[in-house]
């Protein structure tokens, strides 16, 4: 399996969790932590997917995924 198969759905799950935490408790930290990190994870997965379509690897996506984990 490729990395974007996990990073894109996981990032979306983080974003939804951040929004739910914000709506339930009004916690800005939950919004920033969940939605912000989730958005970056989805971005890394998207960059990796686009590189895969060109039959290449993306050092930027790998770096983002490593730092965010």
UniProtKB/TrEMBL annotation:
Keywords of the record: Membrane, Transmembrane, Transmembrane helix
Entry GO MF terms: fatty acid transmembrane transporter activity
4Fe-4S is among the record's keywords: no
An example Gene Ontology CC term for this record: chloroplast inner membrane
Superkingdom of origin organism: Eukaryota
Segments traversing the membrane: 7-23, 29-49
Family matches, as Pfam families: Tmemb_14 (PF03647)
UniProt protein name: TMEM14 family
Protein's organism: Arabidopsis thaliana x Arabidopsis arenosa
């Amino acid at each position: 399996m490729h990395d974007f198969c996990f990073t894109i759905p996981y990032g979306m799950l983080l974003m939804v969790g951040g929004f739910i935490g914000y709506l339930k408790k009004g916690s800005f930290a939950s919004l920033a932590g969940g939605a912000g990190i989730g958005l970056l994870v989805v971005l890394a997965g998207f960059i990796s997917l686009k590189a895969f379509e060109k039959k290449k690897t993306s050092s930027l996506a790998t770096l983002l995924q490593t730092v965010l984990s």
